[in-house]
Automatic annotation (TrEMBL):
UniProt xrefs under Pfam families: FmdA_AmdA (PF03069)
Name of the featured protein: Acetamidase/Formamidase
Gene3D superfamilies: Acetamidase/Formamidase-like domains (2.60.120.580)
Residue ranges, annotated region (Disordered): 204-228
Annotated PANTHER family: FORMAMIDASE C869.04-RELATED (PTHR31891)
GO MF assignments: hydrolase activity, acting on carbon-nitrogen (but not peptide) bonds, in linear amides
Length: 228
């Protein structure tokens, strides 16, 4: 009989890199269900109090989980008993529930599109969203213009660490997962990944409330979701 586990974002589960040397936050059996609660990609834990105000972020790190350079806030890793390097990990995405708030931004930081559009050195523009998990509608306002958008939540990052030692960035996709940003991986999807290390050491994070065909602005519409 399979078991249901819960992982919340805390000093024992959060990390901003992939590494086979990370201590597992959870040990499970094949076929078990894990209910994850995640932060937003930039470690945010609460909606901004007002436009232009700083966001409250999770800053505490457990020894051994301090990233050497910025990485997405991931929850895990989860060790799957009996999983061996060379096996295939089947990830069934049963449900993704958006949090009550989200945000997106453009400009103000180095990226391919900001460089192309001359927006790297301008002030970052950030939009805050109110998210309704029941109706799957997100609402925001830019100046006097109010608008809404339908939500289609998915997890931007699902993956396992490389077989090599050390810290590995969360920003790139790899054959065994990572920053996939695949908007089709919604509830009801199944993802198959080759397992690079014994135990798998699966982590997830970077929840997206909705995304178009890529992240033209840099971030998509990030939020704090529950994922099962």
């Amino acid at each position: 009989m399979s078991n249901v586990h819960r992982l919340k974002p805390d000093i024992h589960s959060l990390h901003g890199f992939f590494s086979k040397e990370l201590e597992p936050a959870l040990y499970i059996q094949s076929g078990d269900t894990v209910l994850y609660q995640t932060l937003d990609a930039s470690w945010g834990i609460a909606k901004r109090s007002a436009p232009g105000a700083p966001r409250t972020k999770f800053t505490e790190r457990k020894p051994g989980r301090q990233e050497k350079q910025f990485g997405h806030a991931l929850v895990g890793p989860v060790h799957i008993e009996g999983a061996k390097a060379g096996d295939t990990l089947e990830i069934q995405i049963n449900e993704i529930i958006p949090g009550s708030w989200g945000w997106t931004s453009a400009g103000g930081f180095p990226s391919y599109w900001n460089e192309k559009l001359g927006m790297r050195d301008v002030q970052e523009i950030m939009l805050d969203f109110e998210l309704d998990a029941k109706t799957l509608i997100g609402r925001s306002q830019f100046g006097t213009f109010k608008y809404s958008v339908g939500l289609k939540p998915f997890m931007g990052i699902m993956g396992m660490p490389p077989g090599e030692e050390g810290q590995h960035t969360t920003f790139m996709p790899r054959p065994y997962g990572g920053n996939l940003d695949c908007k089709e991986l919604t509830a009801g999807s199944t993802l198959y990944l080759p397992i690079p290390v014994d135990g798998g050491l699966f982590s997830t994070g970077d929840g997206h409330a909705v995304q178009g065909d890529g992240e033209v602005s840099g971030p998509a519409r990030g939020n704090v979701p529950w994922r099962r």
